[in-house]
């Protein structure tokens, strides 16, 4: 007798409660293999176009297309060059023309199979093609699974800065397959992990404590730990997005570490010298140090955050940039209003809040101290 097939592992389901635009995020192993059955009910006709990049295509495109074919879905694909460079007006035009050549219709859904860059440009193209089509996110990096694929921010970069042209356009479904994380380089996995830690630091002290105990397991490939970490992160983001979709208030908390982080990325020319998640890790440490300096949080809480990030192998102090230069770049941030910078500070772990009431000299002192420590640590490491 043929044994019963193994039951498919149950994915976790996180709902983003946005009324008529509500959608689910599924988190679990094997979702790419089951994508056909999960996506088919959403399609008005059995046809879709997958947008991906060369690296992701090498690892996952064949399996994804096979899964769609298994559910009777005809599909075509567009394979873009990897990297941030395609998030440009030229890249957007090229993608729109290719999707139109493949005869996408207004009611069709396109699929973004890739990391944040693919999700951002595909979502934006979908939001303007034929005056607005739907799309599905299949994020293939940890960072995209816990942040950029959820919440509907889409867009491209301009010569004036990152993500300055875009739209809020929610996906119809997000499939976060734990299996894809196995093919990620460790450095990229770690950069995504910084955004996982962010959810603990900004609003969930118990989750941060869990990460202190299980973060290494998440990074080393423990499936249950990964699924819990991604699900908890998505649940936190989904709840915030449902309350404040267009970032009129609370959604700004998701920018914890980002005002410092963006300035650091800019100081490194948005290059591979400092990945976005690494900049966010340093930025979160700086935000907590600033909170301590302003008498809001305890040094113990800031120390815990820094110790955990350092223990998993993330950078915690700025390097390769001067304090005055970082401050100047922070003044250019797109969240500056009437010349005043926006900060996400914390009264402790899990207690973040937004403020514009921060004296610049306090920021500069924190930057000077952290940059000095960073330089000393680099000198020690160089022997
Ligand atoms: N990445 C921050 C947000 O989606 O609001």
Task: Count the DSSP helices.
Answer: 13
The global form is globular
End-to-end span in angstroms? Answer: 66 Å
Task: Output the CATH homologous superfamily of the largest domain.
Answer: Dehydroquinate synthase-like - alpha domain
> Helix content range of the residues, please?
40-55%
Bound molecules: glycine
Structural class of the secondary structure composition?
alpha/beta
What is the CATH T-level topology of the largest domain?
Dehydroquinate synthase-like, alpha domain
Tell me the name of the CATH class of the largest domain: Mainly Alpha
CA-based gyration radius? 21 Å
What is the strand content?
Answer: 15-25%
Mean pLDDT: 95
Regions with little confidence, pLDDT below 50 for 5+ residues: none
The overall strand count is: 11
User: How many structural domains can be distinguished in the coordinates?
Assistant: 2
> Biggest sheet, in brief?
7 strands, mixed
